[in-house]
Amino acid sequence: MSSSTQTPWYKDLAVYREPRVWVIFGFGVISGFPWVLIGSMLSAWLQEVGVDRSAIGLFGVVFVAYSINALWSPLIDRVKIPLLNRWVGQRRAWLIFCLIGILFATSVLTQINVVEHLWWVALAALVIAIFSATQDIAIDAFRIETFGPHEARLQSAGAAMATAGWWSGYSGLGAIPFFLVDGATLTWQDAYVVLCFVIVAQLLFVLTVKESKRYRPELPKFNHWLDWLRNTLVDPITEFFKRNGWQLAIGMLAFIFLFKIGEAFLGRMSIVFYKEVGFSNDDIAVYSKMVNWWVTIIFAILGSFVNLRLGIVRGLMLGGIAMAGSNLMFAWIAGVGPNTNLLLAAVIIDGFTAAWSTVAFVAFISLLANRAFTATQYALFASLGNLGRTLLSSYSGYVVNWLDGNWQLFFILTAVMVIPSLIILFALRKSLTRLEQNYHRELE
């Protein structure tokens, strides 16, 4: 049994007094916020102007940037941005660079007529996705490097606060445009103007925190560019397979790819569903955003305690089963109609399962990353998980159309999509449990 499971529960709470944990929360907010700009907010805008479900779903293709960011993740480990790097450090320099790019693309959306210039909207969304996916690499590397290998509780708390922060950026800040636009007092372009000021505030936050250098290994020096290329692009991948063996490695990668697909299909069409079934923008802001925000934060923190006690593998299994079951709540709403009480129940249950499964998932892929290749390996795992979520879920609108708008059947299918990953997890449970136990023994 690991030392973490022998510690009194009240000592687990003490980790939240650590300032480093709250910095991770702030960076989580920054990570989740761009999904508002190109996700729920943009979907609602497109739906209101009459864009077809299939086209709205295809806008999800821009999220593929999160799936392939591993291709340029070595740059965040190796390349130093001139001037900025000397001023604020390597990780924060990349964050500032990306936030400026997101701010520019968002300002473009404030001037666009979505009906007349749909392709320009898509291009601006793609630019936001690329910069956002790039800043996620720096944020994940910052988080992992902030806590040492011996700080298991802080690492778990960091995963919880990263999740809570992400949902604060996505749901908490994501409620702002829906409140602004409800009642037609402001246009969606006006709402994007307001969100530009939120991005400026995020830039100021990055400038106030300290660069993470505490547990970052020294990078080797190279005499030839081929040595640099091998160490940057090849070694992070080969090290993972050598360390785990190809069978276990492929199994883990398959699980990472499949785990979040059902949740992604539901999330991609959720705003369209809410509006089609009859909920107002105000309802979406209150229930889908504000309530979901607090539910997710609370259960993300509780989920970190559960994972410490049960272990990451059991946490993933239970979280996955609960996640599949929660999708059926939306099938219930599809049959009943715009009942806010039922929506409240669905949002609470979905927020609980999403938080629990996400915390376990983040802790799992953080465990797999070798600190010698922090940004590259974590980005590889996160990219693989995002690939199923973004590329496949972009066809969710086509699936709803193929089902002739049968939302009940659609949500049942999203629940079934979780099952393959749970079968893989069950098959690998012994190997993964040994891996986790060896990790904790190294900490003792």
From TrEMBL:
Main location: membrane
Record flagged with keyword Lyase: no
Membrane topology note: Multi-pass membrane protein
Tagged with keyword Protein biosynthesis: no
InterPro entries documented for this protein: AmpG_permease/AT-1, MFS_dom, MFS_trans_sf
Keywords, ordered alphabetically: Membrane, Transmembrane, Transmembrane helix, Transport
Name of protein: MFS transporter, PAT family, beta-lactamase induction signal transducer AmpG
Taxonomy of the source species: Bacteria, Pseudomonadati, Pseudomonadota, Gammaproteobacteria, Alteromonadales
